[in-house]
Amino acid sequence: MKTKQLLIPSGAAIGLTLVPILVLSCKQDEQTDKKPVNILFIMSDDHSYQTISAYGHGLNSTPNIDRIAREGVLFTNSFVANSLSGPSRACLLTGKHSIANGFTDNGTIFDGDQQTFPKLLQKAGYQTAIVGKWHLGSEPQGFDYWNILIGQGQYYAPRFIDNGDTTVVQGYATQVTADLTIKWLEEIRDTEKPFMLMMHNKAPHRPWQPDIQDLGAYDNTDFPLPPNFYDDYKGRKAAELQEMSIAADMTLDRDLKMGFDWTARMSEPEREAWNTYYDSVQTEFEALHLSGNELAEWKYQRYMRDYLGCINSVDRNVGRVLDWLEENGLLENTIIIYTSDQGFYMGEHGWFDKRFMYEESFRTPLLVRMPEGIRGTCSELVQNIDLAPTFLDIANVPIPEDIHGMSMLPVLQGKTSGKHRDALYYHYHEFPAEHTVRKHYGIRDQRYKLIRFYDDGVPAGNRRSIKDHEKAGIRFNDWELYDLKTDPSEMNNIYGKPGTRRVTRILRRKLEKMRQQYGELQ
What we know:
The protein is an alpha/beta fold. It has 2 domains: 35-422, 3-Layer(aba) Sandwich (Alkaline Phosphatase, subunit A); 428-517, 2-Layer Sandwich (Arylsulfatase, C-terminal domain). It is built from 13 helices and 18 strands. The chain has helices at 63-70, 85-94, 98-101, 117-123, 173-188, 237-241, 268-288, 292-327, 359-362, 387-394, 409-412, 466-472, 501-517; strands at residues 3-5, 20-22, 38-44, 73-75, 78-79, 127-132, 145-149, 159-162, 165-168, 195-200, 334-340, 366-369, 376-378, 382-383, 423-428, 439-445, 448-455, 476-483. The protein has a 10-stranded mixed β-sheet with strand order 9-8-7-6-10-3-11-12-4-13, sandwiched between helices. The longest helix is centred in the middle third of the chain and has 36 residues, at 292-327.
């Protein structure tokens, strides 16, 4: 293997930072003196890119996740195809958009009989394993070993299905998931074969229950409000009608633990520590007699502290697995990926949760450490449907023609320089449903985003009256257009405004071509 100096533009809007590297060849016919590379894929649930310190937002510190970026590639334009847990996971497994893989919303059950990248890797001789969150309704297929949380999973004493057998494992879910991951590496895998191991955390999914050791870790931190925390949603009807507001929809009891008992699955020492901490929080809260903006801002601070407490455990246990790989001589023959099933709102627009095509939920963290690859940052437009073909390409397995995604291996080898993809497609299908986010689809390129919100139903049990919906324009055929260069926070919908006709026409034409390409238009 020869050392190459890759002349790739640094800074600017495309490419990777310029560094001298050894270019990794993952093609087995070129690896006469090397074993096939292993793949470790780590995914958390609802982990926002804003709360990984490598992305530079300054909210918290994640040194172990940052290590993957420091020794590999930090993707700054990584996105999902559908910002909802189950559909996002189906897109990941199949490399296809939701309409093609059939898993459009969380009320669906994943058809495990269809083609997935674990099945193709397994057929090619890889050991395949998944530990942690699955959340697809059906049992995993294409895995030699699977040990998954039931449904959403529990934070404490979680129930797992171990290759068909249900067990309860004492402890905190994030640490238990790492324990089981290391156990598989140590005791179960065949050391004569390459592996593809998926380690899927429940955290930091709602209701944001930190590990006992992380309670109060951020109590001395006052987090700055996002500049658009008090967004009035002017010109954005779908945003106005959502029910994911920290002020209006985040609950004091179940979400923020005020007077709600989350301790049923805890051991006695855990229960005692939990109650001691949250009883004191509740006492302080009741003494404040908050209302209005003061209450909303108090809720925001509590949300951030609990959420980031969950991230502490994620980062700590990522570090444990990285250390194990290094101590056992596997680090230099294993590709390591860290990501989330989608992004998450940390108070932007006044919100928590995800679902929208707006940046904070559409964008997802992606960090990749290649054994001998590019190091730096990459601003190519990539999407979670690209992961399946990337894994197949790494293993020298032919990529089926019906896969929608594109292999990122050329990007990781520094061979594209701005030519991977010029635009992304997104489609959110779940309505009516929790949080009342309208169905929508859209396109995003390096500068503009065009979204169409649609549907004409009123969600059952919606707390806002039908009259209010009608007043806002319930029969949705609403378009939104954003110039991300001048309006990165997406506060100004410029659709139909003077000077936007040409860019709108171009984007709409390209959007329709994408819909046809991905099977949404026949």
